Amino acid sequence: MTDKKKYVYQFGAGKADGDRTMRELLGGKGANLAEMSRTGLPVPPGMTITTETCDQYYKNNQKWPEGLKEQIREGIRFQEEQLGAGFGDPENPLLLSVRSGAAASMPGMMDTVLNLGMNDMVAEGLAERTGNEWFAFDSYRRFIDMFSDVVMGIPHESFESAMQKLKDQRGVKEDNELTAKDLRDLVDRFKAIYRRETGFMFPNDPMEQLEFSINAVFGSWNSERAKKYRKINKITGLIGTAVNIQAMVFGNMGETSGSGVLFTRDPNTGENKLYGEYLTNAQGEDVVAGTRTPEPIKNLKKALPKVYDQLEEMTRKLEKAYQNMQDIEFTIQEEKLFILQTRNGKRTGPAAIKIAVDFVKEGIVNKQEAVKNLVTTAQLDQLLHPQFDDKAIKDKKVIGVGLPASPGAAVGKVYFTSHDAEDAKITGENVILARVETSPDDVGGMHASEGIITSRGGMTSHAAVVARGWGKPCVVGCDDIVINYKNKSLTDGNHTVYEGDWLSINGTTGEVVLGQLPLKPPKLSNDFKKFMKWVDEFRDMKVRTNADRAEDATKAKEFGAEGIGLCRTEHMFFEGERIVEVRRMIMSDNEKERRESLARLLPYQKEDFLGLFKALDGDPVTIRLLDPPLHEFLPHTEDEKKDLAKQFGISYRKVKDRVAALDEANPMLGHRGCRLGITFPEITEMQTRAILEAAIEAKEQGAVVLPEIMVPLIGSGDELIDQKNVIKETAEKVFKDKGTRIDYLIGTMIEVPRAALVADEIAPHADFFSFGTNDLTQMTFGFSRDDIGKFLPDYLERKIVLHDPFQTLDQKGVGKLVAEAADLGRATKPGLKLGICGEHGGDPESIAFCYKQGLDYVSCSPFRVPIARLAAAQEAIAQQENK
Ligand code: PEP
Ligand code: MG
């Protein structure tokens, strides 16, 4: 009995079985084709084999489910009817394209076969029907090449070199200088290569060709490069790829035909104009391959004005239908326009902002849709990236200017293979990847790089598209320089740069510059400000910043921070002359001397805090008491110890003994955090006094102050009670001395797993909890924060972890502790203020988690504040929509 399950969805002639909502089943491309057909766009008729079929194929030992073949035959009959052609019919042949398409976009990762259905008879027939023998045999040789490469794994280079040999023999340079007779000859040569490599004749039966190709697309889902791309882009949970089989239309049928790619808006700037390239008398792959230089799309207006107008009108329709900027592939067959593909276009950060703001202005989307869909946190991140500081550059040595493919400035040491780039990145280097051109096999190296440069290729080349998507500065087609893979160098003829040398690239201007240029922070546009205002309309979780210096806090406030969530006071202990006093305090073996040192440190601390309170005027400032192990402040080398002994007038032996006494086997779990304040309460006293005196002074100077004193690294209620008593007693003394009182809060970090588990015991004594997820991750996994680099690459490679848990919160384990502590804390003390100040406070995925836990705020580094604001708003909208 035939399986009734639907494996194949048809589209074309203004109808479709599927629609845009069916991405999971039909893949992105399939769902789009169906939708486009529904919208009435001129898509060539076709069918999509579902992702579920791919899944079944794998589950079923790589065999087709029953019924699939018949459904495919039905699909072909439909296409034959639509175009009045026949699959394998020499009189009027139907030729097919076979393409992969998963639910998530994976550009260039999967395989494609074009012109399928070709054989000797069909090629002759096509030549006769079109009166274009050249085109027929050009299509035929392309098909043999692609089929052999994609389906049988015979390298494309074998065919390239056969073609080059023929061109040399004929004494011609360009492909299109070969005659039709030459192409017939080439077909024979290609078939001979196929026979030699496989031991079989090239398959003549179109249906057999199709079956082989479908299996190759299924197979490409699990290719190494596809798996790697999914890993880098964190694409998980997909069951397989769909296969799109569509009637071919031909852009290579003479001067009134052509192929092109375009974005409905400029993907670099967001400007509202068609942006793209096309080639006359060419098939789609010619445009991206870079073998012929494409023309800018505006030239089409002169060449084929009607088609251009139709194209323009269609892009407007598509933007409205998809509520997003589109990336379109089109073909013109004898002045008839066909849209082959449309998808949301990849764009830079500045372009994303401009498009979002313009789309709202033009009424295509509302503010909520713009905030939710049109700008990603990664794009926002790009805007906050540094630019070259032109004023600081006196005589930069530009060694080449290429196409500005993805804006921003990047500085790094140059590497010439993807592998070398990845290795250098692991050792902590900033890397620039230089390639003649990139292919999907290079994604690992591209990802590891700060910036990418290619000597070949255009604005839609692989390097350009991928770099733009990731927001990495990229210069392509820089033919001023010659890259030599053999001796790992590049040169402009005058200067040679070797592997490991510094290079700077400017993805905004296309310049490639010798050496290491200085960078400066970016300037933010009015559109950015407008967009961020909308973001805040949908956000109800606060965003604070981690900052220790007034200038950082001021920057963060400009970026929209609503308070300081963490001021790490130990950073202030290291600066300038303070370290001397800190050392004197640590060296002293009695409380009296310690107090004298602390008294000398007090004014410094007070001055710093005063700066913070004034900068934050009106917003809360959380200051954490001293956290790191004391020996971090002491000298390490013998010379340093000798100097210190001399400076303090004590014996070298005493210095050595004291350093040795303070040394710890495991400082991360040693004498740090509240343990310092508990053994040396005078430190807590001094810091409390500095905080409160600064707050009083700032208030007297007109600032609105909201000090929050935070106790680090507690694991029990009693630890907090101990420190709270010291803080409160000190506060009373300060208020008495100053003759005035101010409000302040005392809270604690939750960063020891035990603290999370006994949060109900801690909450009664705390005004707030701030999750220190750096230490909480360290202590929950038992992974050293400082040594994870030694094993993380292996863990990621073998999927023992899916991401660095110090970057993206481990929701399953660490998150469970956060949730537990939040619940226990609030159950004991309703309204307890909750925040997060570990690095995860700036990570969008972790921010979404914090939102779900009902945290009052996240706190992150100043440059991540806008990202956190957007992530919080997007999660709020998503939750709202779920309701
Ligand atoms: C934390 O542990 O998450 C934290 C914010 O503190 P630190 O990184 O200073 O240890
Ligand atoms: Mg910590």
From TrEMBL:
Residues in domain PEP-utilising enzyme C-terminal?
Answer: 525-875
- Assigned keywords, A-Z: ATP-binding, Coiled coil, Kinase, Magnesium, Metal-binding, Nucleotide-binding, Pyruvate, Transferase
Q: Which residues bind substrate?
A: R568, R624, E751, G772, T773, N774, D775
Query: Which residues constitute the catalytic centre?
Result: H462, C837
Q: Name one GO molecular function term.
A: kinase activity
Q: Does the keyword Transmembrane helix apply?
A: no
Coiled coil, from the record: 297-331
Q: Where does Mg(2+) bind?
A: E751, D775
EC number(s) per entry = 2.7.9.1
Tell me the cofactors it needs: Mg(2+)
User: Which N-terminal stretch is annotated as signal sequence?
Assistant: none
Q: What reactions does this protein catalyze? A: pyruvate + phosphate + ATP = phosphoenolpyruvate + AMP + diphosphate + H(+)
- Tell me the Gene3D superfamilies matching this sequence: 1.20.80.30, ATP-grasp fold, A domain, ATP-grasp fold, B domain, Phosphoenolpyruvate-binding domains, Phosphohistidine domain, Pyruvate Phosphate Dikinase, domain 2
Q: Which InterPro entries match?
A: ATP_grasp_subdomain_1 (IPR013815), PEP-util_enz_mobile_dom (IPR008279), PEP_util_AS (IPR018274), PEP_util_C (IPR000121), PEP_util_CS (IPR023151), Phosphohistidine_dom_sf (IPR036637), PPDK_AMP/ATP-bd (IPR002192), Pyruvate_phosphate_dikinase (IPR010121)
Q: What does this protein do?
A: Catalyzes the reversible phosphorylation of pyruvate and phosphate.
Q: Which NCBIfam families match?
A: PRK05878.1 (NF004531), pyru_phos_dikin (TIGR01828)
What's the protein called, per UniProt? Pyruvate, phosphate dikinase
